Amino acid sequence: MIEHTPNEERRKTSAALDEARLRQQAIGVRLRQMFDEVVNEPVPDEFLDILRKADKRSSENG
Amino acid sequence: MSEAASKHANRDPADDEAFKRELVKLIPHLRAFARTLAGEPAGADDLAQDAMMKAWDARASFQMGTNMKAWTFMILRNQFYSEKRRSWRQTQLDQEAAERTLVAVDDPEAPVALDELRMSLAMLPAEQREALVLVGAGGFAYEEAAEICNCAVGTVKSRVSRARRALHAILDDGSYERDGGAAGDAMRSILADAERLSSAR
Description:
Chain A is an all-alpha fold.
């Protein structure tokens, strides 16, 4: 930053910081949205089938 | 009797039931994490299934009442990197996965910027991407993310902040673009979000 920063400059700097913060916030919102989109998908039956079979196998062996 | 079965021979069936209930609840989260690591949905689901089975087989070593989500995420991550190490085509696969992701998310209803974020995220180094996803989307504390990634807390913090800066830069100059489309659209869309956020304050 230059010396003898006028108030105007300082104001601009702080506005830029605010904007950067806001952008990061917006990216964060999108990121969670992207992740939650998959979390909210119905789980394919395959997952539960596999787990059920494994559980059955271990209880038969135990 | 298999080795795994003998290890579990003395387990209380009620413990197994409780474990299974918790594990089932975590499947959607495992799928989401796998998707961010593996990129394309089919490969990601294979990875999530493998991790789920690894967790089930290792249930005797899990301390009930501790953070099962972090524990399963750690298993999934280890699984992902051990598979990657085995693959001599690693780099090519990454590239292909990134390209398939573009096709896989080709949903006309999906908000444009979401695809662009996905593409930009895919351009980050894996270690930065996973740190950002765990902390920024998975809801993990830095300490938990550090445990999952098997690194220091400070390392996670710096990866997350580098990832944020890099994402910002990629979205800003539109360098994720391949087809000559208008650069800067993603950032404009993100900015529209920012404006909504600021007016909501």
